[in-house]
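Item description
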Amino acid sequence: MTGPPPRADRIYLGWEYAELEPDPGPPPQRPALPGPEQLNPGWLAAQQREERRLSRPLRLGGGSGLGLAGLTTALGLLGVLNAGLTVAGLACFLLLAGWCARGLWHGRRELRALVAREEQRVARARAVQDRHWHGWQQEHGRRLRDWQARGRRFQDQPRWYGVALAADLDRVDVAGGTLAGWSALLTMLAGCRLAAGGEVTVLDLGAGAAAQDLLRAAASAGAGPLVWVLPADLPRFDLGRGLPVAALADVLAVAAAAGGDPASPPDPSGVAQDTAILERIAGVLRDQPSVAELVAGLRALAQVGDPHQDIRAGLLSEAQAESIAGLYGRAAAGQVTERALALEAQLRKLASLGTAPVRLPPSRLRVVAVDAAAGLAEAQTLGGYLAAALTCLLRGQPGPGPPWQHTVLVSGAETLRGDVLDRLAGACEATGTGLVLAYRSLPPHVRGRLGRGNAAVAFMRLGNADDARAASEQIGTEHRFVVAQLTDTVGSSVSDTTGQAYTSTVGTASSAALSRSASQSSGQSGGRGRSWAGPSPFAPRTASAHGETSYSATAGDSVSLTEGINRGTSWGQQTALAMGTNRALAQASQRSREFLVEQHELQQLPPSAVIVSYASPAGRRVVLADANPGILGLRTATLHTLDEVTRAAAASPGGMGAPGPVPSPAGPEPEPDLAPLPDPRPRWPNDPDH
């Protein structure tokens, strides 16, 4: 990864693929060497033929003159002609032969002059050609160096830009998604928050171990995460312990109401009645009762079971059991008994909460998961309690902290009732706590809350046709996106790697530490008044308050996060494998396919693809991102956003996409290698492999 480490004022949801530097294309062709300029043999032969044709009468005339002169001389010697005629004829014929010979000589001299002029012209043309050839070579060398420089910029440019939202958002709603997609998004978002020095609490209510990759990455980076798997870890779970009686009664009443249908409308009067019953029972018990004691009081009020068992267990005394049984008169006995019986049926699942506390080291990553083996009613009650107790804990903070310094991620949030979601969102907004709600499906009570208020919405794969249609209408079908090849390749290879069960980190505490913590916290026999003296892992704290090592946003933290993702997660390993074995992913364009936001397209999105819709100063933006956290380890990835890089490139002197100046080496320029490249794909000398 290039660029800065994760910033504390950013919420990173994934990566956006773009190539700002254009592909330089094939290398410039080396100029072809033209044939050297020379005297044309055909022209020379034509001139010679023409000279012979023109000089033929002169040759004939000269030959005839010489023949007639010889004949005249012979006739004079024989006495046929007298001396006068012989001398006159000989003189005339010799004069004719001389005139013809002179004409032949002039013709040949003109031919030689013409050939000489042509040879001079050819020499001058050859000199000009040589000068042009050297100029073409220099120009080709400059073009080749420029092509190599543009090729290096094209190859080394970031191709994956961070999709980051400003921390002034209150919430991120994740609609849809598979277990693999949630694993990628949780690892990407929470990993960057941890690397920026924040704290992360994950409530996994979907029973799918979506935070498994996040835990591996954090463990590889040395973060030391804490994991509770409920209901097995309820005795060692302290969220909600130490709350005031009124707050604890409210939390338990909300948890009991969560066992119903999440889509049903809330019943404030029923919750109020349940809260009043629990407060009255707590008033009889006095001090700070535990959940087990309150459940025992509900049994005494509903007159179910054997009260002597609770007395022998030290949960109630005989006087308290009698007082609780007489809290309400006969007129209200039937209705109260029915409510108490319903409350006991729901809250008995939480009776073991905090009964065996153990001192835990501080950690900035906490994962609380509902076991897949838990029943439906038990899982809903546990989920409601977790959300309500965390809401109460957040409301008890002294004031709002830095935005998103503490981030709460809830997977499987569709299992929570609408009023519970509203209470949790309101508490997070009031305290500056970041909230991410991941919904596997979109029931009616979720659709009405999706993106409500100051929230961004992230749409992942929606297999249900109705959910996909509702999401496409909310996004807008006019948007066109391009899926990168890496998104398709890696997403398909890790789609079946999640779903493993969590391993509890608090349930493996040594028995010595457990017994020592229990003995220190037990003040009375039977567990009455038991409390944990140590700081709660969920309590707001600073790094220095408990001796925790500071984890500020530095380059070293980014490297640790990258190494943790590469070593510990299937996303990092599969991404490195794909980039190492698939040359097309490493060198060629990664554009895979285009699609419009339509129902069937949302049903077949790659697992790690996420369509982010959020408000920006320029209006609402819709971006397709890849939540694959393994991209963090690529050298072509940067956490700078595409808008930031685009604005910086537009403000630079060269403008966007303009090649920068090519530095000239010191001394004379070396002669470029003009040999043709054997591979038609661009290669740049001395460049490292992608």
In short: DSSP finds 21 helices and 14 strands in the chain.
